[in-house]
Amino acid sequence: MSDLDSQSTLRRLFDAAVASALPKRLVDHLPPPTKGRTVVVGAGKAAAAMARELERAWPGELSGVVATRYGHAVATERIAVLEAAHPVPDKAGCAAAQRILEAVSGLTADDLVICLLSGGGSALLTLPADGVSLADKQEVSRQLLACGAGIDEMNAVRKHLSAIKGGRLALACAPAKLVTLAISDVVGDDPAVIASGPTEADPSTYADARAVVAKYGLTLPPAATALLAAEPDETPAPGDARLAHAEYRLIATPQLALRAAAAEAKRLGLNVLLLGDSIEGEAREAAKVHAGIARQIAAHGSPVARPALILSGGETTVTLKGKGRGGRNSEFLLSLAIALNGLPGVYALAADTDGIDGSEDNAGAFISPDTLARAAALGVDAGARLADNDGYGFFAALGDLLVTGPTHTNVNDFRAILLL
Asked: pTM score, two decimals?
């Protein structure tokens, strides 16, 4: 199989994973109409596409507003779509969050709120708590993104600096019935973590948020530090009776997406090793582990024989030390290429299923046995690029970026290593 055919196969598997998690799945999870009003709110990279599918399927009156990332909007008729920044929030995100709170105010027990959530909702649904400014939240976001914190740690801080996250949106919807339809982009599919859990009870506390700040040695703005110390209004904890009106339904998950890719791989005659949807840790270190497994298969035909496919998902992290461009998937692949060192017959794709790797315009990239040789011929030093966190620049120089544009879903990272 040629490099081109290998890339086509890997892209086919990625497309199968994405297709299994598209917003149209929500039609199988809709609640029955109510005799009162139906209001739709939500946030995330898939929120606009989810709103469009809901409009098409809903039989009665409908209104509302959702927030999505710039460039991820789609045409809707009854639900307003607002665009905002991700991963660092902006004024548009604050305005969208305020519009969402206004949309659910004054409802009755006869009314229904449908909340549409997906990855990216944490940044897009931004409403700083009293005493904290948008500039403060932006600085906190930058520090959290750069320090290598896990998504649950990041969200513990975000929730306690917010007037809408960590179950606070659910409180604002009462006494109306609230049904959340969510596409999971987090390890473990925990509703309290997806989009910082605006409609779900929050098991984290102010103390947990302070512990994250201390663990990573963050220097937060004074107003944020003061709020975390003062503990003015704890988020609703699990079992809080004020959330009795709220229900949560997952419509797509990373594991389902990996299973769809595995099924497609088996149809192609590949022996599949599915490592699961919960791979975390530093992207460059996770790559070394994947490379070790690939070497085991290549040398010994175990735990599966060639032709083989290693699949994994989850959400790795990158601790920024350099000044290069690139997200966690390009960093994973660059580290993987170095660890494999041209191992014959091994090809790989790593990409974010939302179509955006970090803050760049690519979903991910490809590697092949000649990746390092081609880079060297161009004078591109793989080790130096990795040290500079410049996976994007490395793969752009080779023409090996995967650019899909917004996929209108988000079920976390997708990694596929093909051994022929």
From this structure: 0.90
- For the segment 360-380, what is each residue's pLDDT rounded down to a tens digit? 899 999 999 999 999 999 999
| pLDDT tens for each residue of 155-214 | 899 999 999 999 999 999 999 999 999 999 998 999 999 999 999 999 999 999 999 999
* 364-367 sheet: strands from edge to edge: 271-274, 308-314, 413-419, 346-352, 364-367, 401-402
The string of DSSP codes covering 270-323 is PEEEE--S-B-SBHHHHHHHHHHHHHHHHHH--SSPSSEEEEEEE--B----S-
Contacts of 181 (CB under 8 A, 6+ apart): 26, 29, 30, 50, 114, 115, 116, 117, 249, 251
User: How many Å from the N-terminal Cα to the C-terminal Cα in the chain?
Assistant: 8
Q: DSSP H helical segments within 353-390, as ranges?
A: 371-377, 382-387
In 341-387, DSSP assigns E strands to 346-352, 364-367
CA-based max dimension of the chain:
68
Which one-letter DSSP state was computed for residue 154? H
Alpha carbons within 13 A on the beta-carbon side of 253: 13
Q: Vertex 85, ends 81 and 88: CA angle to 5°? A: 145
Residue 142 CB contacts under 8 Å (≥ 6 apart), including other chains: 88
CA 240 from centroid of its chain's CA atoms: 27
Which residues, including other chains, have CB under 8 Å from residue 180's CB and lie 6 or more apart?
114, 115, 116, 117, 191, 199, 200, 246, 247, 248, 249
